[in-house]
Every structure is written in structure tokens, then in C-alpha cells.
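Holo prediction. Input below; ligand is FE2/S2 (inorganic) cluster.
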Amino acid sequence: MKRRTDQQRSRLAAHVFVCTTDRDAEYACCADAGAEETLEAVKTWLRERNAFWSPIGVSETSCLALCSEGGTAITIQPRDEWYSDVRPEDVPALLEREFGPDAEDVAPG
Ligand code: FES
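Structure of the complex:
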């Protein structure tokens, strides 16, 4: 086991977690609400600003307990920001609000 906290702290200012949970149940899940498209929109926005993975990480995650038919759940850590009902078209405004128009605001929130 290797502890790599210092490496990640120096590389990552924030981490965007996008729920892509799919479930065969009567309850809403992010996969049925456009999660893959929302995830791609997050990656694209960051790539276009040369901020994808350094300094802003992106990962798929399991259920964030914000399930909705209206869109995908996202959390941004360590800022402790939480969103539900995110549609792909919402992503630019959401990320601009969090990180600024050029993803330059990467100080811990
Ligand atoms: S399935 Fe995405 S928050 Fe629950």
C-alpha cells in the first residue's frame, strides 16, 4: 500500500464526481436521466480549458442520494458542493459558477 495524498494534493485542486448509477428499479437513477451525456459535458468543458485532471479531477461515482428523473447528481469536493437535476446543457453554467469562465478559480472553495 502506498499513501499518495501529497501527490494528489499538489495535483488536484478539486474533484467533480458525476453519478452514473444505473439500476433496474422503479426509482429514478442518474443513468436514465442523461448521466453519460452530463459526464461527457463535464470532461469536454474542462478539456477545452486545459483543466481536465490537473487541476480538476473527474470521476464517475455511485449513488449520491440525490436521485431524480430530472437529471444527474454531481458533487464537487473538497468544496462540499452538491447538485441534482443537472442536464448536459446545464454543465457550462455550473462549472463556470464553480471555477470561473476559464477554470482558473481552483482555490479550495
Ligand atoms: S442514482 Fe444518481 S444520485 Fe442516486
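The chain has three helices and four strands. That is the main takeaway for now.
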